[in-house]
Design goal:
By secondary structure, the chain is mostly beta strands. 4% of the residues lie in helices and 27% in strands. It contains one helix and five strands. It has one helix spanning 30-33, and strands at residues 25-28, 35-37, 43-51, 72-78, 91-95. Strands 1, 2, 3, 4 and 5 form a five-stranded antiparallel beta sheet that branches. The longest helix has 4 residues, at 30-33. The N and C termini lie far apart (40 Å).
Length: 102
C-alpha cells in the first residue's frame, strides 16, 4: 500500500486565498463537494456554482443556493499546492440544471 504525506501547517499557520471568483456567480459549499490532495502535489476543490446578480440580500439567501436550486458542481485544480488556480479550466462535473426532479 502506498503512503501519502500530510501537508498540514502548524496550528495558527493557515493561508487564506481565493480559489474561484466571478462577479455574476455565487460559489461555495466546498464542504459538500470535496477537497483532494493528490500524490503529485495537486489540490482539487469541488464547489457549487450558481448564477447570481447580487441585487440584494435575497439573492444570496440560503433558499437560493440549496439543493433544490439548479446549479452546477464544479471541480478546479491547482498544480502548485494551492498557490495559483486557473479558473478558465474549472470544469462542471454535475450540471443540476439538466437533471430531472425525482
Amino acid at each position: 500500500m502506498r503512503e501519502t504525506k500530510s501537508h498540514t501547517l502548524p496550528r495558527g499557520k493557515v493561508d487564506h486565498g481565493i480559489v474561484y471568483r466571478r462577479d455574476d456567480e455565487f460559489c461555495g459549499w466546498v464542504f459538500t463537494s470535496g477537497i483532494w490532495d493528490t500524490a503529485d502535489g495537486s489540490i482539487l476543490v469541488g464547489f457549487k456554482r450558481n448564477k447570481n446578480l447580487y441585487r440584494g440580500a435575497g439573492d444570496v439567501h440560503h433558499d437560493n443556493v440549496t439543493e433544490e436550486q439548479k446549479n452546477e458542481v464544479m471541480l478546479i485544480r491547482s498544480y502548485d499546492r494551492g498557490e495559483t488556480w486557473d479558473i478558465d479550466n474549472a470544469v462542471p462535473i454535475w450540471d443540476r440544471s439538466t437533471t430531472e426532479a425525482d
